[in-house]
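Hi R.,

Here's the chain you asked about this morning:
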Amino acid sequence: MSIPVAPSEVVPRPAPHLRFWPRRVPLELPAAQTTLWDNLDISARRYPDKSAFVFFGRHFSYSQVRSQAQQLAGWLHQAAGVRAGDRVVLALQNSPQNVIAYYALLRLRAVVVPANPMSRGEEFAHYITDSQARLAVGAADLVGEFERAQALLAPGTRLERLLVVDYADAMPAEIAPDDAPPAAWQSWLQPTVQLPAWASRWREAMAGPLQPPPYDGEPDDLTALCYTSGTTGQPKGCMHTHRTIGHNVHASQVWNGVHAADVMLGVVPMFHITGMLFSMHAPICAGATTILLPRWDRELAGRLISRHRVSSWVNIPTMIIDLLASPNFASFDLSSLRYIGGGGAAMPQAVAERLKALYGLDYVEGYGLTETAAPSHSNPPDAAKLQCLGIPYIGIDARVIDPDTLAEVPQGQAGEIIIHGPPVFKGYWHRPDATEAAFIELDGKRFFRTGDLGRIDEDGYFFITDRLKRMINASGYKV
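And the predicted structure, written out as tokens:
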């Protein structure tokens, strides 16, 4: 139950930000009655031969991604016993296998539990026990960590099976120099690992003709348990549906003007809600092409943008800072970029000004949380302010309240940011007390309490000022 709050004594504030609202963008979107799986299915029928993803120069068409997701879903269902509602841990770097596994689980109406592929055994143990997962899909370099997790878990709570991915299986036999990964990556791209008896290899799962059952997914199906980094205690699983994630999938296309002719750079990690949206779901829905970069490397990123004529790039500001500092920066051609933006940290003014001077690009900053399926705020692309969260996103009602009295505060005064709208999560997995504490009711609406302190300026733009519960922000990720 939400906590009811007395009506605010503050006169209802006008919406000054609407003066800066992009004229081509609607204030709200109708709720889609399709699922994330439907988005892939539609794009594969609309653009069967078009490249959905490019991995170190190897192209995967939309029809290939769909057919391989179907094939893996057949193995997961018939050989591994995955059923609708089952939670499955997914621990992979950005790769074709990450996308295929995610959509194979969607195809079965299972629930994806995205896990940081840099996690250690203790962290995997928490993901497994909290979500009650019995199967995981993980990279070969993580086999040892999953074995450590198994040793930490009691009988009856352990994984029953691990499906092991070798990234090299998705790489071309010969890689052009501009697409080639750094030599230091070979240790995890092509590790030599002996599998335990309870593990299976991806290539073996993909070799059989097994078929999944008919698809009957619904928009309100639970589709992902996205774990927060948390400020106290263990991370909590945020329950997202096709509808909550799907709203921002469609809204981001409208806001950013993404279309099938776009080429995206998918470098924000897919286990993170921002990468999940902008490196995978949104490009798939639009029929765009995504150049996958499994880890950040400024030299490789610069070459990929140049070689593949990347037009849209969602990132974190530290990536831009690092790229501009490359001694080889002058050799990169970034002229194809028409949109660049992100969040997680403030963009320094000097860096933004250099980006503008060199390429005429405004860095579009935004704001969102795992609980809001990524953006709840964004700067209008044509009216962006620096070091600013932006204005409430399509369909979002965002306000600032006194964290003690829970009443709205006047314009310019700092308080806690609260958010209401279609992408807000359904609650914390098996944590009813935490869910109840995270929401309040205001003006008949259910608002999520972000725990972030901010203010609204005279133009209706939001600025963050502090955090109610302090945490460290490392390269855009809360730790």
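Residues 1-12, 470-479 have pLDDT under 50 and may be disordered.

Let me know if you need anything else.
M.
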